[in-house]
Amino acid sequence: QSALTQPPSASGSPGQSVTISCTGSSSDIGTYNYVSWYQQHPGKAPKLLIYEVTERPSGVPDRFSGSQSGNTASLTVSGLRAEDEADYYCSTYARDNNLVFGGGTKLTVL
Amino acid sequence: EVQLVESGGDLVQPGGSLKLSCVGSGNHWMSWVRQPPGKGLEWVAKIKPDGSAKAYVDSVKGRFTIFRDNAKNSVYLQMNSLRVEDTAVYYCANEDHYRLGYWGQGTLVTVSS
């Protein structure tokens, strides 16, 4: 159960857009449309941002969007705000009904 | 809105045991996810609403057991043969089609001599 690969850090200025990638394999991201993204502020529990690659739960701003190409999923945050500074994790279905997470990306708003 | 509350985290010696509890499980698949201090998230285990199916990450197989008591609206994680590397904040979360929609606040497990 190898972890998904995310860049350790990303950054952008307020109002800009930033995209975070999440690379898996043909056994997980490349086959199943079950990629989710989570936002975690320091000392807090993770919060679901995106599920099934592109879907947003009720209450999540449309500044957050997801996409996928082949074995790589991406999270784009548009119109960056100071409160978007947080850690972001991707996850997806893995074999044997398991879940696997990416290593996380720390997003800094400059 | 689903509310989940974990408890049971503590300081325990290597080789020891601990049982974590999570209240608020409802009629959902439930997962435990852990986060070592300063590190990323790791999915640990999951259980079907009726308890008939379970899954574990390889590193805890044979040591951890997930189970639930639906009458008490609770899910549990029995952790045996604990190792230093099991030190983490443990979260419970409800799962729907491989997405974790609601999370508890977490409970800290520290394995140290």
How would you characterize this protein structure?
The complex is a heterodimer of chains A (110) and B (113). Chain A is mainly beta and 110 residues long. Chain A is built from no helices and 9 strands. In chain A, 36% of the residues are buried. Chain A is globular. Chain B is mainly beta and 113 residues long. Chain B has no helices and 11 strands.
Please give a quick description of this structure.
The complex is a heterodimer of chains A (110) and B (113). Chain A is an all-beta fold and 110 residues long.
Our estimate of the beta-strand percent of chain A is 35-45%
Number of helices of chain A: 0
Multimeric status of the protein = heterodimer
Number of strands of chain A: 9
Proportion in β-strands of chain B? over 45%
Contiguous runs where pLDDT drops below 50 for at least 5 residues of chain B: none
Element order of chain A: H for helix, E for strand: EEEEEEEEE
Structural Rg of chain A: 13 Å
Q: Distance between the terminal alpha carbons of chain A, to the nearest Å? A: 35 Å
The averaged pLDDT of chain B comes out at 96
Q: Which structural category fits the helices and strands of chain B? A: mainly beta
Give the helix tally of chain B: 0
Which pair of chains forms the biggest interface, and how many residues does each contribute?
A-B, 28 and 23 residues
SSE order of chain B: EEEEEEEEEEE
The overall pLDDT of chain A, averaged over residues, is 94
